[in-house]
Amino acid sequence: MRIAIASGKGGTGKTTVAVNLYYQLSKYLENQVQLIDCDVEEPNDLLFIPKAEKSNTNKVYSLVPKIDREKCTFCKKCSEWCEFNAISIVKNLKFAEVNKDLCHSCGACSVACNFDAISEYQNPIGTISEYTTTFGSGVIEGRLEIGSSMQTSLIRALKKQTNNPEMLQLLDAPPGTSCPVVETVSGAAYVILVTEPTPFGEYDLMLTVELLNDLKIPFGVIVNKAGLGNHSVYEFLNKNKIELIGEIPFSKEFAVNYSRGALLDQISEEMEIFYQSTAERLLELTGIRKLNN
Amino acid sequence: MKTIITSKGNDLQSVFDPKFGRAGWFCVYDNETRSTHFIENSFKNVNGGAGTKTSEMAAELGAAQVISGDFGPKARTMLEKFKIQMIILEEEGQSVQKIIDKINKD
Q1: Which helix (DSSP H) or strand (DSSP E) does residue A64 occupy?
Q2: Most A CBs within 10 Å: which of B53, B55, B74, as the mutation test of the A interface?
Q3: Where are the domains of chain B?
């Protein structure tokens, strides 16, 4: 079972919540929980987990077409079939090229070509690394190749490689509401949306709520940095009958610990209680608790 | 020699379009015959690859230079490959006719 932690706005506390829940849920589920860092452009979960050790790493590739200019007749059929404007053909210059940053590896051009001029090669898009940790069943991190724009493909590969219905998996999503987020939350049993009580937090939360309603995925909200900003976000939750899982009060001390990477070093009693009750609520919501009892 | 001038409309009185990949129209001016014709940019509203495809269009039209307000990174790369000269015009609001008059004066 998968639970995703997402937010429209960046910097609301996805990583904080994901890492803490991984820690707390490990206690409840006899370590049968994994943390999967799907924020492949800037994976940072591991920064906060002491003594994590890399146990495996593998590269992920996408197939990108290459055009053989000797065989190409410059008929433009492949270019017309390409939905993503990735192929440029100029007959009078004998020019035929694929822009790998625009290519989505759909393979349509290879099918379109009647002259066997297109072959596909492996283009590296990132790595997937597995880490063992002193609690839980490990962290698996996707890390995008610098310069690549194939986030969604890498997240898809990461989900495929880690697929294990027996295990509770926490997916730390990238910020926003675009394709990489849709890919991360698709198939999740539940989504935790982390927001902050500011106009930016509220606006981006609204977008994410719309997305999850479209995808028909159940979700609840954690308000982080409570005490800042205003009450507008709570009114939005009330009006739309969205569950408020809990609130994390704004604390400068907490921010200092975060910036030192010491998220799990000194968990205050207040935080311990908050994450324990959140973990219990999640087990209840997703039906895991009932299954185990 | 053919010069492409990006234009917001399809006649000489139209205002110069400062965008290249997402320009409304291309005015193709031939300085030998002093003739012009306008081609609509079918890529102006695509999700991605506008710069790449409009550069390809410029190459197919046989242009030696393009006059626009700016060129994105993909367009720059392609136009360099096609050896098409990029001319950036910062002054906005002029008509295409006025730009052609300037070319003829030089």
Answers
A1: strand A53-67
A2: B53
A3: 2-105
Contact A86 B49 (CB under 8 A): yes
Among the CATH numbers 3.30.428.10, 3.60.20.20, 3.90.1150.30, 3.40.50.300, which is that of A2-49+133-292?
3.40.50.300
Total-model pTM: 0.81
Across the interface, of B49, B56, B74, the residue whose CB is closest to A84 is B49
Query: If you measure CA to CA, which chain A residue comes closest to B78?
Result: A88
Q: Per CATH, which fold does A62-123 belong to?
A: Alpha-Beta Plaits (3.30.70)
- Rounded to 10°, the helix A269-285/A14-28 angle is 70
Q: Which CATH superfamily is domain B2-105 in?
A: Dinitrogenase iron-molybdenum cofactor biosynthesis domain (3.30.420.130)
Residue contacts between A and B (CB atoms, under 8 Å): 39
Closest-CA distance, B103 to chain A, in angstroms, reads: 26
Q: Hey, which residues 60-89 in chain B have their CB within 8 Å of chain A?
A: 60, 62, 74, 78, 81-82
**Least confident stretch, A281-285, B6-10, B34-38, B68-72:** A281-285
Q: Which helix (H) or strand (E) holds B106?
A: none
Distances (CA, A) of B10 to B17, B23, B29: 11, 11, 13
Tell the burial category of B61 from Cβ atoms under 10 Å away from its Cβ (0-12, 13-18, 19+): middle
Its ipTM equals 0.87
CB contact under 8 A, A99 and B82: no
- % residues pLDDT > 70 (chain A): 98
CA of A100: which chain B residue's CA is closest?
B49
Residue with tokens 């950036």: B88
